[in-house]
Amino acid sequence: MTSAAWWRDTLPRLVLSPSFVLVLIFVYGFMAYSGWLSMTDSKMLPSNGFVGWENYERLFRLRHWNTAINNLAIFGTLYIGICTLLGLVLAIFLDQKIRGEGLIRPLMLYPMALSFIVTGTAWKWFLDPGIGIEQIVQSWGFTEFEFRWIKDRDMAIYTVVIAAVWQSSGFVMAMFLAGLRGIDGEILKAAQIDGASNIKLYRRVVIPMLRPIFLSAFVVLAHMAIKSYDLVIALTNGGPGRATELPATFMYSYTFTRNQMGVGAASAVIMLMTIAAVIVPYLYSELRSKPGERG
Amino acid sequence: MSASTTQAVRTGRATRFVIYTVLVVFCLFYLTPLYVMAVNSLKPLDEIRGGGMLNLPLDATLAPWRSAWSEAQIGVQASGLKPYFLNSIYMVVPAVLLSTLLGALNGYVLSKYRFRGDKIIFGLMLFSCFIPFQIVLIPMAKILGILGLSGSTAGLVLVHLVYGIGFSTLFFKNYYEAFPTELIKAAQLDGASFFRIFQRILLPSSGPIIVVCVIWQFTNIWNDFLFGASFADFDSQPITVALNNLVSSSTGVKEYNVHFAGAILAALPTLVVYVVAGKYFVRGLMAGSVKG
After folding, report:
1. B126 and chain A: CB distance < 8 Å anywhere?
2. pLDDT of res. B250
3. Does domain A63-259 fall into CATH 1.10.3720.10?
């Protein structure tokens, strides 16, 4: 090989290598290090005293962690379910030659451009019994009206769902709308000529064709749910008590304020594994089905 | 997303009425929080405490905005959000530019050159977009300390650059995949070098994807809270962290009007970008969700 050819072959790899090295160290190296720490007796500072699975055993005995897991189950299920349902219905409605679609679509999607801290701040005071919804409805004459979920240990997690749905459902709508616009109108016409009612048409023909979008929406929403941190911090700060604690807030407080770094690292590993279980098969199938061609 | 497909489904009048009603109700649902923030940021505190959160201000005042921007107590200083707003800008601009540049080069290499392991490298970069950042917090704190970047804006730039590479690479790779490889082969035969091809052939047609990538990175990095809260100190905190400190500080009276003004200030840059270039923002979101 001539040196020019060698250079032409090597240069692309050379250009890619800084990014690759950064990702290798800062993503995969860090994962390995956190994984190692989860098996050590690290407290306030990282330590290398190996303790095996002890941190994981402790983690799953902690009521605090179980609260976080339960909350994630409630939050994740409702968040994914409501966003998907709402996104689908709004997309189908918007797909009916709606006047003003160009105005409605961006209105539904703008929350996605906001920081969760902003969303949390807005909803925190909007849901506050003193000045928010409860007060507004009472001022309309319904003096008995009560809405104090955000202060209620049993209900506070649902306020996180409300704010998160507000932020993300427009995005899911946009995904479904893009899917609907990709469906061949002839298929729908044919089905209608066969006498299918609108509801039947959507249930039997259209919605099944949107399957890939359901999958994408699920993957995106699931990984966002597991990573949820900012919104809870801004909206309820994990409270009242620990009523809205999620794994992400648990990890942070155990690692950085309670000086239980080993347990904190173990919780981060569990979070990573959960997300990997959702994302890896998805990415694998996506990359395989379109082998390197077109995007 | 074109609105031009002919609609096949016929809908009756009653159905259309229901559809419009539902759409209007949900538009109100999406708009209300922004409206509440806007009107209440213009009210004196007494007026908010007196109720009527949905009412327009009786006695409109810009004082809460002035306070949020330059007077409010945040942490130990009565500095308002202004210095933190600037911190965010100092952090966002280099992080966005660098991650976009690296993404463009990576996308070019990964789409137009084949070598052993290229798929695996792309897969590893792609997965890095989705990791829960909790898994990197502890080692990152340690490395920033070793590099002498703890609590600095430069440290945050590094963090955002590293975790932005995955998405920017994805954007550019997918975009360049659609670009005819024959053109590049021909240029190579003519003796054009690696960088010349990039500069003369790919870059001139990369406008849209650069916009998509810049908007995506800008929005994500501006809105970040976790890294800012973990790695910044008082002098380098981004605005999201400062806003949260302002709103959740437990001392003194709760100045709702100032909180709302502050929240709008923190949201303004990304909102403006969304209003000006919403189309590209949506394209980025879609590319981030529908991979391949």
Report:
1. yes
2. 66
3. yes
